[in-house]
Design brief:
By secondary structure, this protein is α/β, with parallel strands linked by helices. The protein has 2 domains: 15-46 and 300-431, Aspartate Aminotransferase, domain 1, CATH 3.90.1150.10; 64-294, Type I PLP-dependent aspartate aminotransferase-like (Major domain) (Aspartate Aminotransferase, domain 2), CATH 3.40.640.10. The protein has helices spanning 15-28, 50-59, 75-86, 104-113, 129-139, 158-167, 189-201, 263-278, 284-294, 299-321, 358-369, 374-386, 412-431; strands at residues 34-35, 98-101, 120-125, 145-149, 155-156, 171-177, 205-209, 234-239, 252-257, 327-329, 337-342, 388-389, 391-392, 402-406. It has an 8-stranded mixed β-sheet with strand order 2-9-8-7-6-3-4-5, with helices on both faces. Strands 10-11-14-13 form a 4-stranded antiparallel β-sheet. The longest helix has 23 residues, at 299-321.
Length: 434
């Protein structure tokens, strides 16, 4: 080419997907990989129930399911979702306050790219990679964050959040992920109300990622942001990838609150919609399925059964790992992840795990020969030694070393064995340099 055409990158990597390349290399060498890297229930063996398949089969007989949808989304589906918000008697929205996207990844990218480059959204630390990458790519600078405290059940440091909002004038919005990814933390109402008040006091808007808002267990409850947002401008991000689950549908939406109360926020939402128009519309069939699936008499019992399974696996993992030396874990109560944190100064660049197969041993040795984060080094050795594929916690923009695993294994006995193996390898790895 006559000059370099590639846009400079941020140096950030989407490790949830990137580690698949490493795992695939091991698969080619005959290793059976246990996929704990990505929150895809279907990949982990969850079957779409027959009644849901029937709903989709019926929709395929309707010609309109093959056509474009309106730019904002199917009218009937937006009316259905707006009514679900309004019947709780709190925030009141119209179908025009709902915009559909090709998955929440698309919605997240649009939300950040529509912001001025000198305006920032403060986000939790650790934070979900898609939000992190979109915010950093829009501004070309590291993000502003408020810490989630693993030694206090992963609760956010709201005082730190307020101090940073007060001192950093470039912050225009606050991101909350509830239930949280990667930690599984479920925000209590009191904490959410404090964050709403901070947004009100400092004239900010809220971005609330509620992807997992119905995936809550162990006695916890979620409070929808629409019930407490009051007059604060905000966006709730929702989707069906995890809840139905139908990750391949690429179907998510924004619910907009109080756009009419703030002219600046209204222009921002209009900028998001203008970007959306360039792509014409989002996928039609999944949108059409939402009312028929969510209103189906089998839907709530189906969801309840899944929640009972996630709760059981959460408690199995917590029971096995809670007293393990060298690490700290919290009981997961939302989403379907568990995050394990290594204690301070436990990891170093000399630790390893024995890998029987020479080809794999050589390959992993090459990966860890470059300077990498200590938890990523552990993850590579774990994968080479056991086939268990997890995600290093530092990939979620935190200096806390650890890893995230899923609670999606269908076989309870297999899951317990996976967690016990994790525990054994943690101890073996840490003590290998002694």
């Amino acid at each position: 080419m006559r000059f370099d055409i590639a846009k400079s990158g941020s140096g950030l990597v989407y490790e949830i997907r990137n580690i698949v390349n490493v795992a695939n290399r091991l698969t080619q060498a005959g290793v059976e990989v246990i996929w704990e890297n990505i929150g895809d229930p279907v990949q982990k063996g969850e079957r779409v129930p027959e009644w849901m398949r029937g709903v989709l089969a019926d929709l395929l007989q309707e010609d309109c399911s093959y056509g474009y949808s309106p730019t904002k989304g199917m009218d009937a589906t937006r009316e259905f979702l707006a009514e679900r918000v309004n019947r709780r008697g709190k925030a009141q929205i119209t179908p025009e306050d709902i915009i559909f996207f090709n998955g929440l990844g698309d919605a997240i990218a649009r939300a950040y790219s529509a912001i001025r480059v000198d305006a920032r959204i403060i986000m939790p630390e650790p934070t979900y990679s898609t939000h992190l990458l979109a915010e950093v790519l829009h501004a070309s600078f590291p993000p502003n964050t408020y810490r989630m405290n693993p030694y206090c059940d992963w609760s956010p440091d709201v005082n730190e959040l307020e101090r940073k909002v007060k001192s950093h004038r470039a912050i225009v919005g606050i991101l909350v992920i509830n239930p949280d990814n990667p930690t599984g933390y479920v925000y209590p109402e009191e904490t959410l109300r404090r964050i709403v008040q901070i947004a009100r006091d400092y004239d900010l808007f809220l971005v609330i990622d509620e992807t997992y808002h119905r995936i809550v267990f162990n006695g916890k409850k979620t409070v929808p942001i629409s019930d407490i947002i009051g007059d604060v401008p905000g966006i709730s991000m929702k989707g069906i990838s995890k809840e139905f689950p139908w990750p391949g549908s690429r179907c998510g939406w924004m619910e907009i609150y109080n756009a009419g109360r703030d002219e600046t926020f209204a222009r921002y939402i209009d900028a998001i919609l203008t970007q959306k128009m360039a792509e014409v519309c989002s996928t039609t069939l999944p949108q059409m399925a939402i009312p028929r699936i969510m209103d189906h008499p089998e839907y709530q019992p189906y969801l309840d059964e899944r929640l009972r399974r996630y709760e059981k696996l959460s408690n199995i993992a917590y029971r096995i790992l809670k007293d393990l030396p060298y690490v700290m874990v919290n009981r997961t109560c939302g989403a379907f992840y568990m995050t394990v944190v290594f204690n301070d100064a436990i990891l170093n660049g000399r630790q390893s795990l024995p890998i029987a197969q020479e080809e794999i041993r050589t390959y992993i040795g090459k990966l860890v020969s470059e300077p990498i984060e200590f938890d990523k080094r552990f993850v590579y050795y774990l994968l080479g030694a056991t086939g268990i594929c997890v995600i290093p916690l530092t990939s979620f923009f935190t200096d806390l070393p650890g890893f995230r695993m899923t609670l999606l294994e269908r076989d309870e006995a297999s899951f317990e064995q996976i967690v016990r193996t994790l525990g054994e390898k943690i101890v073996q790895y840490v003590e290998s340099s002694r």
